[in-house]
Write a structure and sequence with these properties.
317 residues; 11 helices; binds flavin-adenine dinucleotide
Length: 317
């Protein structure tokens, strides 16, 4: 079923989650162990992130180093199939522009369609870790909106080869990313929102936000989106703070601000266990307020660990 149908049919705020594939070579059991304890909260859909290749240096003969291109966390499509099979819930694979040309994207979408996947989250993806700026694959897409256009075309039965006989339309419900605190490359919020509006106008069905720790940022973002005529659902993404180091790591990686009240409390903590408990409490409060605000769904970034999110969900749902 489509994410938008789940939202439409919901009688109360839905619980959903995002997981990341395990490191290459690890068992899928770690994914099941993360999801099993959360199933009592009845997530109608589960997102699975996509991780592109990166460059690593490996020791070669005679003290040489060779640069190798590897994917540390493959398996997004397989995990989606496994989730649908095991839990009978919808899986939402993230698909990205980076590392794919248009034909590879088309073939990946055909695989997903054959598997019965009805939802995708369409993203640009970030730069390769060792490279400063995002570079599109030759013959690939530069922005999420271009990838969105390809998925919409396939939903209309328009494949890259326009001489195909009887092309089958796909049926994807399409989500896109939104940034309550602005995407880090955007020159300003207005510009970022213009491109978000472009994605909504093109036919995106829903938005999932970057994590935020101050609900006011989400409320302001939603208000600005609605003023501009973005009418699709905006699902808030939440992550419980887990370690003191994240005070610096999260802003660096996700380009978000942490509220001063939270920072002050974390700085008082003597152990990461205390930080974790504080992070859970903060996230419970955020969740309860967002429910009052009337959000359709709370989407938790679990990082494939269920413990904290389970405690939050038990207090909220
Ligand atoms: P875009 O919508 O393409 O926007 C990128 C930047 O370009 C923005 O600054 C925007 O304002 C600007 N822009 C957009 N269109 C145009 C245009 N036509 N011309 C000029 N400028 C334009 N990354 C992964 O690699 N894997 C994942 O699984 C993943 N999951 C994510 C899930 C969520 C909910 C979120 C919020 C992010 C996720 N990301 C993931 C990170 C995401 O890929 C990065 O934030 C990326 O840098 C931007 O992706 P986007 O889809 O927002 O890009």
């Amino acid at each position: 079923m489509k994410v938008t149908e789940h939202l439409k049919n919901a009688k109360s705020t839905l619980f959903s989650l995002e997981i990341i594939p395990p490191m290459k070579g690890e068992s899928i059991e770690s994914i099941f162990q993360a999801i099993d304890p959360l199933m009592e909260f009845k997530p109608p859909f589960i997102d699975v992130t996509y991780h592109r290749e990166e460059y690593v240096y490996k020791a070669g003969p005679n003290n040489t180093l060779t640069k190798q291109r590897i994917r540390k966390r493959p398996g997004t499509v397989g995990i989606c199939a496994a989730i649908m099979h095991r839990y009978k819930v919808d899986a939402v694979p993230h698909i990205i522009c980076g590392g794919f040309n248009k034909e590879e994207t088309e073939n990946a979408l055909i695989d997903l369609h054959y598997l019965g996947v009805e939802n995708v989250l369409v993203l640009r993806g970030d730069a390769i870790k060792s490279e400063g700026a995002f570079t599109p694959q030759p013959g690939g897409h530069s922005y999420a909106s271009e990838l969105l256009e390809q998925v919409i075309n396939m939903n209309h039965g328009r494949y890259l080869d326009d001489e195909l006989q009887h092309p089958t339309p796909t049926n994807f419900c399409i989500g896109v990313a939104g940034y309550p605190e602005k995407h880090f490359e955007a020159p300003n919020m207005a510009s970022d929102l213009r491109y978000l509006k472009m994605k909504a106008d093109m036919g995106a069905d829903f938005i999932v936000t970057q994590m935020f720790f101050d609900n006011q940022k989400y409320y302001d973002f939603v208000a600005r989106c609605r003023e501009m005529g973005i009418t699709i659902p905006i699902i808030p993404g939440l992550k419980p703070l887990a370690t003191k180091a994240q005070l610096n790591v999260l802003p660096r990686i996700f380009h978000i601000d942490l509220p001063e009240d939270l920072v002050k409390e974390v700085e008082k903590c003597k152990t990461n266990q205390q930080v974790k408990e504080l992070g859970i409490e903060w996230c419970i409060n955020q969740s309860k307020e967002l429910i009052k605000f009337g959000v359709p769904c709370l989407h938790y970034y679990t990082m494939s660990k269920s413990d904290a999110v389970r405690q939050i969900a038990a207090n909220v749902f």
